[in-house]
Amino acid sequence: MLPDAFDARTSLPRPLRVLIISAELAPFARAGGLGDVMQGLSHALGEMGVEVVVATPLYGVTRLDSAVAPQRWKRPIWIPIGGDVRQVGVIETVTDGDVRVLLLDCPPLFKRDSIYGTAQEPYPDNDLRFATLGMAALRAADLMFHGPPDIIHAHDWHAALAIAYARLSENEAWREAASVFTFHNIAYQGSFPITRAPMLGLHAPILHEDAVVANGSINYLKTGIVYSDRVTTVSQTYAQEVLEPEHDHGLTEVLAARSDSLVGITNGIDTTLWDPSRDRALAARYDAHDPTGRIACRTALAAELGLDMSHDPPIVGVVSRLTHQKGIDMLLQVVPTLVDDGMRLAIVAVGDQQWQSKLEGLSEQYRKKVAFRCAFGDPIARRVYAGADLFLMPSRFEPCGLGQQYAMRYGSVPVVNPVGGLADTVEPFDETHATGTGFWLEEPTPNGIVAALRRAVAIRKNANLWNQMVRNGMTRNASWDASARSYYALYRELVGADPRPSLPPPVPVGASLARS
What we know:
By secondary structure, this protein is of the alpha/beta class. It is built from 17 helices and 19 strands. It folds into two domains: 15-268 and 479-495, Rossmann fold, CATH 3.40.50; 293-475, 3-Layer(aba) Sandwich (Rossmann fold), CATH 3.40.50.
């Protein structure tokens, strides 16, 4: 266990070097919580004194305006993949938190209007795209650090092959590089036809069920689990759940084999980016000591969404993807009951076209009582967190979840199904002692949703209890500090007392890399 004020710079001969590989990194490109997590974790590790480099693709949708002093490496890197030697440019920049970022530029694969695919289906060459991410990230790091970093930390299936490429390398230093693989949702595994293996640099000796193959297909997520030194996931409860057959999504044997190496580290949130006292997207700023600004935010949200606020009805906020996992089908079933109970619904979501159409129909049918906006993320999501009284997350499973943490930070009381990270981050309210931050569903059903919301609305009538619960949520420590310390302790365990001392300093920003 590391002390609260731990700083890596005071305990090592040089900073620990960590290469983070991810398909998303906010604010450059994100499609969900992964990008936010990469931003928050990398910043927190950097503040501890870890030398962090994040490698991520340069997409057509990447926000280069978020880059600080971006510089393109004078020479591209070349990687043998896809039956050819492929050129990848590197744009080096830093984030606002001084984390170094390598944007990998391969236009034929990455310069598209979406990160993963169209609204209808994923891109058919995603196997090649994200194999390229993994291989190019290692090559770029090799040039930057004159060898491997102390830790390769790959996130989700998109980055998993990087760990296999390192472990199977002809270079002994890379074979021995310590690695951590984090899966954020085991349901997304990256499965592709085994016939694609040669193009991806995966050859016969490892093409079997004990390594990269699951159910007759190449499975990127399994590959990361098999080849990494440590496996982590994004909450303690989820780490336990995935070992149960009903939650393992077909990876029972490999998870059981790695159970001693599996660690749950609950995600935090970036409390500097998510701060209602400084958030310019809101109608008013406020904090836990003086939350009166929430009144203006609530009024502004209702006006923006056209909700009738006669008789001071509770506003139930939902910010979600429209998927079965998120319990959207159950939400659709209970909308009429919630409206009859006098609640107002503010729903911001994107995803399945059929559910989107149904929500549009409900918002038309219950005009001024149900509002639906087909949108993702900022800034309207922030206004829902700040203006809603309650925040509903009836997920069937939720590895960690960020929405409930944003909601508590902004003073909205979460009502959740206690699975995964929802159970770890939302403490059920205790009326006797006025402790807790939200409400748990007693069962993940439409009736369970209605019952939990009714309990919450009943307690809302007691202003003292309600205000205390809001304060409990707003003052909860949701920062990345504790999580970053846990990751750092894991890194130190893998590299021993000291990272390799022989590596020279990293190549300066924008330098010519003659070894490409």
